[in-house]
Amino acid sequence: MSDPAASHTVWPANPFWDFSVSLYRRAGVAQACLELQERHGLDVNLILYFIWLGIARGFQVSHGDVAATIARVAMWHDTVVRPLRAVRTEMKDNAMDAPDDLGDALRNQIKVAELDAERIEQQILHRQNLSNAPDARPGLPVARENLYAYLKNLGIVRNSATTAAVETILGAFEP
Predict the structure, then answer these.
(1) Are residues 84 and 169 in contact, defined by beta-carbon separation less than 8 angstroms?
(2) What are the angstrom distances between the C-alpha of 83 and each of 87, 111, 120, 158, 169?
(3) 21: closest CA among 11, 10, 30?
(4) Of 52, 88, 132, 168, which is least packed with CB atoms within 10 Å of its CB?
(5) Are 66 and 153 in contact (CB under 8 A)?
(6) pLDDT at 144 over 90
(7) 41: alpha, beta or left? (left if phi > 0; alpha if psi -120 to 50)
(8) Where are the alpha helices (DSSP H) in 14-131?
(9) Residue 87 and residue 67: Cα distance in Å, rounded?
(10) Rounded to a whole number, what is the distance in angstroms from the first to the last CA of the chain?
């Protein structure tokens, strides 16, 4: 999520993407999201999506909503986003005798492709169109419940490190 201007693709409007970029840039959020991704295999886009549903729309997800949302993006995430990330990461960690300037240029192109793939995933999520209840109350409490519902759906037990990462992300909304 580091450079949304890097792609030359013309993207349709997506308030979820705009929200994600803004949140991800706040102090500590990127690190906390990546910690949850690395420690538990979470999809950062889903972390952001469940928060956005609560903050922006007041939509509280059910266990079924979480499962359906995960299933909706699983194939894209597993066959496109993760492989691009794996190649980029491997190139960063292991030069494989590629000349530095050429290896770096290719890795940067892969990084742009990875970001585009994540943005497409966000388009898929945004189009999901979960509808608000008539008494919806957008805000942090709903976002918190949504995020913990995502963790629970995956069988992730709350511990101090997980709770700290979640609260760091949600703390970005505190004044």
Answers:
(1) no
(2) 6, 11, 15, 28, 26
(3) 30
(4) 132
(5) yes
(6) yes
(7) left
(8) 15-24, 29-40, 44-52, 63-76, 82-93, 100-127
(9) 28
(10) 23
